[in-house]
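REQUEST FORM: STRUCTURE PREDICTION
Request ID: SP-0412
Submitted by: Lab K.M.
Chain count: 1
Length (residues): 1189
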Amino acid sequence: MSANPDDRSVPESAITGIQRPIMSSSLLWAVDVYGKVYSLSTARGRWERDRDPLLELKRVTTGQKRSWGVGCDHHVYLNIHHAEVPIRFREETYENQRWNPVDGFTDILLPTDRWAWSDLTGVTPLPLHSFLLPSDSWEWEGDWYVDQGGTGGEPTETGSWEYAVDFPANFFPEKKWNSCVRRRRWIRDRRYKASGLWTKIPLDDPKRTPIPLCDISCGGWKMSEQPGQYHFLWGVSQQGQVWFRSGILPEVPEGQCWEEVEAPKEVAQISAGPGDLLWAILWDGQLLVRKGISMDSPTGSSWAPVDSPPVKEGGAIHVAVGVSVVWVVTKDCKVWFRRGVNSHNPCGSGWISVGGEMMMVDVGLNDQVWGVGEDRGLYFRKNVTQSEPSGRGWVPVSAQLGHSIQNAQPSAGCEYKGLTEPSQGSVLTCADSLHRGEEPFLTATLETDCFTCTQKSFIPASDSFISSLMADREPLKPLAPTPQTSTAPELSQGEDSVASLALMCNVDLEAALSPQGEGASAGKAGAMGASSSVATYPLGLEHSPGVEEQEGPVWTWISGGGCDVDHIDQISWLSPSDPCSTALSIAPVELKAAPERKAKAATASKEPVEMSASVWVRKGSMRWWRDWKPFRWVDVGVALEESTNVNGNRDAIFFIYYTHYDEKKYLQVFMSDVMALVPVVRENSHHAFAVYTAERTKKRWPLVLTAQTEKDKTDWLTLLTGCCCEARGFMGRISRQALWSVTTKGDVMVHEPSPCLESQTQTLPCDMMFWLQVPGHLRCVESNSLGVVWGIGSNGTAWVYSGSGHTSGEVLPQGDVGNVHTQTDVRIVYIYENQRWNPMTGYTDKLLPTDRFPWSDDVGFTECTKSTTRPPSSEWFWVTEWAVDLGLPGGTDKEGWQYAADFPVMFRGNKSLKDFVRRRRWFRKCKISLLAPWQEVQPITLSDVTVLPCLAQSNIDQVSVWALSDKGDVLCRLGVTYQNPAGSSWLHIGTDQPFKSISIGGGHQVWAIAKDGAVFYRGSVSASNPAGECWYHIPSPPKQCLRQLSVGRTSVYAVDENSNLWYRQGLTPSYPQGSAWDLISNNVTKVSVGPLDQVWVIADRVPGCPMELSVPGAICHRLGVGPMQPKGQSWDYGIGGGWEHISVRGNATESARVGQPAAAAAPLTSTIPKSPMPARPPSSQENGTAVGL
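STATUS: Completed
RESULT:
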């Protein structure tokens, strides 16, 4: 008999009526406490009980178009869903003969030959009479016939023999003079006839009893190239052994035999996913994960333990696995979701508690989740998607029973009068399904004044109903019925629990539930005679007055592996009728408050609300720069998993999945550990960004990823940045004390300092600093502690920060729209044309093999042609065409060429007889336009700017801002305040030569560097005299040309053209020009001195940075700077490379100063300048090497 509702007879009225379109249907399977099997079709929407009245199953598992079940008789049952093409299997055998001179070809073979009837290899004898049907589910489609090679099975004159010299050899259809042996193939087809029926899988050994399985699970059908063709079937015996059904093929759905898989401990339950995930639960509630499952190794290689969810006692009792999700139910009926599970990381990363109380859950198609609630109702997890695999609420399955409802066992209002002998295979004989020494998952309770059997009142705890009858050896006396007027399904636990109703016995439930009740049972017992050992025990459960209807089955198991419910709005039986239907609560007070909640929710929202945890996931594909040899781009899968617990706290993990030597691996990054997310420029990738963590910052080895498009990169950066801010609690405005920096790409980064950043004893390491991107594109940024922030773009345009304070990529609030402006910037892209002189043709682009490319970058290592050179990103667009640059340093001829003897040497504009190579530079301008919290300051373009640093407690009405124009003129901005950071007008300061760097420090000290490297100090600058009076010339370091400087409260640092860092000694209030320059370090490109005299630099190279990622520009912090040691002691290496500018002049967060440790106070007597380049020594300084004079 078929269990498929689509196979049922069609009423005549349906035939004569209007034909409606038939939607594709799938089946949901469920089992009640009596072992009766029901199916629910998504098309019909009604529960249909299986037509076999003797079928009683304990567990059901569903795969692709087929289902398995464990019967109460310990047999495994198979149900093949109806298909257009039936399953056929072709049996074949070979008839072998040898020629002899007397009889010709005969079946009398030599002793060394193969069998007369054998397989293709001849090793196994296969006579025709040895072929038997595997089970009653198969039938022969015809008799044996000879394979005619496409002739339709009709015999031919040759008899389809193949000839050869001997066994084994190559056979040919033509007979030759030396053909001594021949063979032909016989074929017979058999067809699977039991589609839609539950049939027993044949035993491995018919003479032995079946393996007493207590659980079964199928999976693996998505692992092959043809999904649904192959299934892996797993089982667990009552002794805790794990079994695997081998040989399950499309043409052999029943498989071949059971193979035991060794497990470290006794297993209680197992679950397999459609992929290669397999989880198991031990008797003690612990969890195991099977690793190494593949098509070549379906049983896997090893077990890995996984900690169970953090519950007070018990542990896990049920696990359900999907494609990339794992759900667990603990002994307290709480539901848990495992984060970060996939084929690369089958163990996952952590547990998330999900709302609802369930007895068991099952993961179906597309990772949809079904469950049996604590009230024994069926539920569906709503809003489960790839981006949010944990869903958002539980929806009851509200389908009605079909026409076969008279066969279904009721769950409430039933009358128990007596117990009689069961039929063979009854669910009541399955006493072996009890848990060893465990209490049941849920104890059935009865209220003392109510004896009506409801959905909660009498619920067996294990696979069979008998387990609830064997807890007590004493028969219960009948209890007097009490009138009951309420029919509410919620019953509180009484003082006298009657979970143990009778001693262990054989029971016929159908007789017990018959309308005749006790009389029928007594009559049947009397007819059995004296040989019967049946005892009758009254259960004391009387029929409640006013309850006349049957409310449906009491469910114990559900399987949705073959049920497709992607669009639940099209399925009527999954539509909640009220907003409270998603809450799984069994407290009576909740039922009383339901109407109030319903009325309140109707005015607030139509969406069911559930206070539970959730997991949100976004997946995608990227390319990852593999950070070991051979270094190259690798295609990877990425996933961001964000979880929210019941308290509202959020956490996120970023996964990178890759394959190395056919082994699945993964990297995981907790977003709370991310220090920065920085867009970078990498070769052959225009959409790359780097992910820095504290550990990877120390190693100078960030995770570098590239997205497929610029939009994907922006979306991922926005998403990851938001998770980082939430993990660190940074969701407000940027403070005035923030540190600002700019990358080589022009991205603006900011760091919120803590008091320990400049502490003398417990300094925050640079690699622990979290950098956040701010919208905008600039070349440099300067700030102070009053919140005045100025920046200069690549084209020299001045900008002031308008104070929106939101991170990059965020949707700005409506109130901040006035602070957001359209920011534009123009950048020049350069490429070089290279040529070599030839005696025959003169200068040509035919270079030597060791030369650089004909079109290249500045160093010649990268080929850059006009056609292949692109703007920095898709946000940029060209605004000019390619043109020759005639302003190269060193001069050019009238065509823009520079000449040299060879590559690479110093180029010059005049050609000589020894010049054999030449080059010229081409440029093209590109432009970017974006919305950012930056306001333009017109009309003068600037090359440098500086803002007066001040302490946090300072109260200054006017903020001094000095700047240099692109022509080298010195300017002073008037009217700058925190409310008006752009100021009102420019005041020109006279100079006798153009300047290239300027800085203002504490006490209005103004220092500047001329374009020839000379240093100047501006005297008499004050708040009342912002322009000062005159310039004083300061001698430069010997044989050095300075290019940039920064002035703090009492110190001045400068950087020369050779990247050396200098400190100005002898600065006093009476002699502010100082006395001499001291060399601090080399390998420095920029320096910034803050209001506390703290020193931060941009280093060209840092120790430990691999050459493969050796990108110039890393942030470094000078440690040990204090009043007694103004030059500091050592370097702390921070994030990098790819940084171009830093400003710490706004950080006036001062910590309590303490005395220097004795070891740190030792004088630095070395006369050899050192830099951040040397490797870190194995000392107490974790982030730097002492460098200085």
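NOTES: The CA atoms of residues 583 and 1083 lie 64 Å apart.
Reviewed by: T.R.
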